[in-house]
Model the fold of this input.
Amino acid sequence: MKRILSLLLCAAAALCGCLQTAPAAAANEDTILRVGLTVSGSSSFADPKLENVSGYASGYTAGVMNGTAFSGSKTITATQLTIRLVDDAFQVSDTASGEVLYTTGKGADHLAIQPKSTLTWFKGYRWQGSFVYRRAGNGNLTVINYVGLEDYVKGVLPYEIDPDWPAEAQKAQAVCARSFALGTHKHTASGYDLCNTTNCQVYLGANKATAASNAAVNDTRGQYLTYQGKPVIGYFFSSDGGATEDAVNVWGGDYPYLKGKVDPYEGKVDEWSVTLTAEEVRKKLISAGYTIGTVAKVEVTKRTATDNVNEVTVTDTDGKTVTIQRDKVRTVFGLKSIRYTITPHQTKAVKTLPVSAALQKIVPSVHQITLDGKKVTPQGWNIGGENYYKLRDIAYIMNGTGSQFNVGWDNAKNCISLFAGQAYQPVGDEMSSSASSAVKTYMPATASIVLDGKDIQLTGYHVNGNNYYRVRDMGKVLNFTVDFDPESEMVLLCSADQSGQPVQPEQPEQSDTPAASYTFTGSGWGHSVGMSQWGAYAMAKQGFTYEDILKFYFTGISLAG
Done:
């Protein structure tokens, strides 16, 4: 589920990078929002088309908008319309026949179309409400959806949170979405209140709405967040990785209801690692408007009270420094969150085995294995007289011990990420009997390995589609001991909390040479201000109500409406 949700939740991660003015008035049944539509990356259309949805009333009325009130002047019976600018006038024609059905006066500043149907097709999505067309330049048109507040929220919810999530999490999201919409009017210069992309919040009509998502909106109908009796904006994001953050430390502006706090519910949901060469760091800084020479050092120089990154300093070889603060510590480097560490690498790691060790005699391992005196059964290979096992199998059996670690995989980068001390998150194929007498494919492992942001080397082989690494090497870097009893032919593994003599990972030698690259290792996804969606999920799973969730993530708020 997490892989699917990461696609859905990326919208919340990219919410706006500055605080908006809080809503001036409460919502009511007649609240209409003006939403500028962007579809498939385009917000400017040469000949936008409307189509009535089958099973609903057909036809349209053409006219104008006075504020948010529609005034019609022409009834149209066609089911498909094409709207163009012709001779400085808005022209409506029947898409099928090409017949011109309605034309505004020359120089008209807009055209309004009110469908008679409840739902209307536009660019492959079904929308509710009316449509207004304004000039976008070069003969193209901007399309604005005038839609009721509750219908709008129903068009947001399934795009910002999984509609299969617990009902209380969806209700919390509905209140946030409603509060965000009421207070976000940063596009008024373009003739509408908010957009329908991640720059505001994702809204794509009724296509993905479900009975569950609509129920969450209906059950919270009209409700929005307030602080000391005044409406406030319900900021949200994907996951915090352990702690949310004060708005002042991210965007500036001290808002008392947007205070950071340690999050005991979510856990580390989105763990990530990004490695940038020194030159890539320089290019990202230049693209962001900074001036910097050859990068010599990148370091976190300030953290917040909740241990999020608040300042990063980059130093070049001439001693010049660039200081990056607040949310720019995330956005400048293209990172998922503000919760991370930075590890320099002096040289690039060698990722292949020596030629002399490339191919050794290989047979299935027949040795029994114990961990802290208890029998365990990872399936492995004996290669050149040494036992090799999958990292995930060893992580699986070490879970809950002092030597536990988690394993991540980046297929695009052919990179394995290891996180010492973290509980292992199973993927479903652990301890499977993948080692057999039939060796179909066999070659040195080529995957790079990063432990807590540092490049490491493990002797390994790629056998029958899986990577296997020498267990003695694993023990040296992952804090457990490995021994062998020749009498019983048994491999003896001893975790850190049993051996009393944990093996500490080797520390890289310090060097005055500028680092060749930097690895940013972190957790969380988004700006970390307001409600964590994965935190809402976890709290709902534990039996908390949507009001409990909102009052945890927003300080001192109440619900109105």
Q: What stands out?
A: The chain is about 20% helix and 35% strand.
